[in-house]
Structure formats: structure tokens, C-alpha cells
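Feature request disguised as a bug report, sorry. It would help if multi-protein outputs had a clear separator. Right now it looks like this:
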Amino acid sequence: MNEAQGSGNVLELRHIECAYGGLRSVADVSLTLRAGEIVALVGPNGAGKTTLLNAISGLVAMRAGEVILDGRNVTALPVWRRARLGIARSFQLVRLFPDLRIAANVQLGATGKSHPGFFASLLHLPSHQRYQRKTAALALSALESVQLAAKANDPGSALSHGQGRRVELARALVATPKVLLLDEPTSGLHAGVIKDLVPVVKAAAEKGVGVLLVEHNLKFVGEVADRVIVLHHGEVIAEGRPDAIMGNPRVIEAYLGGAIGVRATAAASRVQKTSLHADSH
């Protein structure tokens, strides 16, 4: 039994470092994520949060470090191999095909699941038909989990922005991942829709999925996260439960610039109420 499996970690990052043009955007970051755990990555503008998600999923090259998925070192593997092994993610921008049915949009997320191959699909062989039935059922189940099964046959163009966010989440879930990476899932959503996302994210974790999310809405983080990791200038500066992190003086300084004369309790209140929308990572 290897170290990551023995500790119950479904994801382990060891001394990750990323750089753009010589400027380090992620500097020696190590963290763990357990199956069924929800961990939020927070931090001010330019902290390196999205870059870290991209490094985990293989979208950006790392200058140093290792990515361990469920005990397996996937550092050298391309994006599609990591996806097939259990890493799924959503992006800041909703990417749906407007002319496809919503169910078909979600079904695309299951393309790595025992696909029968190009010629089986081209000739519509029985293996392809079985694959289609299986992935269609998975897509409907994923839509049910995000409370959009009733819209399965609607075109993607018929969705509101909030519904599109939930469909993206369903498309990630249909792959039955081990690790789910969510990049600002509440971006552009109003309070009512954000509230609806809370049970959806928690339901994914209850199925044993490790959820790592980048988020600027600290109220949402406080409602869903088991643990919060704070990045600043590409480095981890704090880690702990949401209630403890919100009152951490170093976190307050990172967000508010260490304003002189501002009491920590008042500053913490401001941090909790601030969505920090200007977050380009």
C-alpha cells in the first residue's frame, strides 16, 4: 500500500511550482485532498489559484513538483489520461453547445468510459448502441443531481447562465470522477442560484468525490467547505476550517492590505461579506 492510499488521500500535491516568463505564479505548494472532502482555495487577485487547478489537470506545465492521484503519480501524463483516471473540472466560462440537447451536452463528459471506438460509432454497431444507452442514463442521473432533469431535451441555448453552470457541473459529474476541480462555480450567479449550488456540491462529496474548488464568494465557501487553503503570491499562507480562516490576521492582511488601525474582528467581518469579484488569478 502506497503513502497516498494509506493516508486516505485521493489527491496529493507535492511542492508544485509553476512560472510564466520566469515569474513564479505557484511557489512550492503542497496539499492533500481526501475522498469525500470539500477543500476551497481562496486568495486575492493573482494568488495562483486557477494556475494550480490547471497544473493538477495538466493544462499547464509545472516547473517542479508531483501530482499524485489516488496513489498514482500522474505528473507526466497528458490532460486526457488524467481525465480518464479520474480528474474532472469545470471552468470559469460556461462552455456548452447551444444547438445540442442539454442531455447530449452532459453526455459528452462520459466519452472516456469504455468508448467502443470510431468505426463502431461510424457503423452504429451494437457496442456503440450499448455505449449510448449507458452514457445517456449516466447523463440523466447527473442532471437529476443538479435538479435539471426536466430540461434534458431542451437545447443548450435555452439555459440561463445559472442553469448553464449547473449543466457544466453535471457534465463533470457524469465522468464519475475521483477528484472534481471547480473553478469559481458561483461566478455571475445571484444569491438564490448560489444557494441552490450548495447541496449539489455537497452531494458530490457524499458520493466519495474529492472536491477542490477555487472561489471568491466567501459566504459560499463557509457553507460548503470542510477546509480552506489560502494562497497569496503563489504560496500557502493559511489552512484550516472556514470559521478559523476568516479571522486569521495573515489572511485579513492578504485580502485587505494590512490596513493600519483596522481591528481584526472588523476586518474579518469585511472579508466574510466581500465576494472579491476582481480575481484574475
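(second protein starts here, but nothing in the output says so)
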Amino acid sequence: MLDELKRSVLDANLALKRSGLVLYTWGNVSGIDRESGLIVIKPSGVDYDALTVDSMVVVDRGGNVVEGSYRPSSDTPTHLVLYEAFPEIGGVAHTHSTYATMWAQAGCAIPCFGTTHADHFYGDIPCTRHLTAEEVSGAYEYETGRVIMEAMAQLDENAVPAVLVRGHGPFTWGDSPMSAVVNSVVLEEVAKIAHGTATLNPAAAPIPGYLLDRHFFRKHGKGAYYGQR
């Protein structure tokens, strides 16, 4: 079942490990088959070096296991909320990468200080509020998805395919599992650059809107001219 998607999700999880963004069993990537509504995700607590195509777990939109001998990632409910809210995405990734997690623990959005950031993300990377005690004691991972939706309410998920969960870490998404991983890698790099910028100059301000527009839209949208046709 969904052999091609399983392979894509496995490859994306292994790429996440190779990128250096995850340690041990931290982090996960999933992918969705929009036709069937089924999701393939990394199994919970299984070392990346032990992952195979057959390790991948298939769940339905309610999080019920449809195929697989392992339990799915504990973050599965968060992924499900994102797939429900963002009908165009095809993959979700979650890490505890160092610099992005620093910003999440500080409770700060990542400002768009320069064109490296603007080339990929259209403005600041938002940070959620803290979950309440009631949310944490209840359906914690589902509620994590809900606070992400709150933080993204006024944003275009295709222009800002990343969020920081306060006190936790980053989630990213894309049109495929691998593109979600690419967004995680880029997010970590811009988080690192922003950390250095704020350290060198605590009064640093985001770039002007006209420069943000020029850099983002030269690579994204109908008028994009970066790269080859």
C-alpha cells in the first residue's frame, strides 16, 4: 500500500538525519496521499539507521493505523491538523534543530533581517503562544496543531511554510515530504543567521518591505525569474 509514498517518506526522514538537524530518534517527516486521504509517517522512537520502507506507518485522517507493525510518531496528531488546514501541502517535518529551537524557547518570531531569509520565507517566521495546562494535559499533540493554526491565521502557508512552537521547536511543510525537509534545513540556517545578527546588533531591524518583496517574488509566483525555465 502506498509504496511510492512510503519510499518518499523514508528518503525524507533519512535526509533529515543526514542534514544534521536531528539527534537519536528526535524529529519526524510524513507525507499524504490526497486521493485516499492516507498519511505515511515515521514510526515512534525508532532509530533512523534502522528505518526501512516497511517501517513506515500508514494512518488515516483520524490517526488510526491502517498498515504497519509500529506505532506512528507521537506527533502524528499535529501532522494531521496541518494536513486538514493546509489542503495544498504534501509533506510535514518536525525537528528540534538547535537555532530554530533557541528562538522557539525564547518565544520569539524569527525576523526577516536580510535577503537570505527573504529568498525563501515571506517575512518573519511566527512563534506560537504557550499551550495552556489544560491543552497539555488533554490531547496535547492535537492542541499543538491548533496553536500552530492560531499563529498562522493571518499568513499564507505557502509563503511562510514554517512555524515555531513556543518552548518546543519548529514544524515545516511543503508540497512533498522532501520539500518539507528542505524548508527545515533553510529554516535552521536563517535562524542561525538571525541569531548572529541579533547578537551583533540587538537593535537590528527587519529589511524594508520593498526589498522583501523583490527577493521573495523573484523566486516565487507568476513573475518569478530566478533560475531556469
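Even a blank line would do. Unrelated, but nice: The chain has a mean pLDDT of 97.
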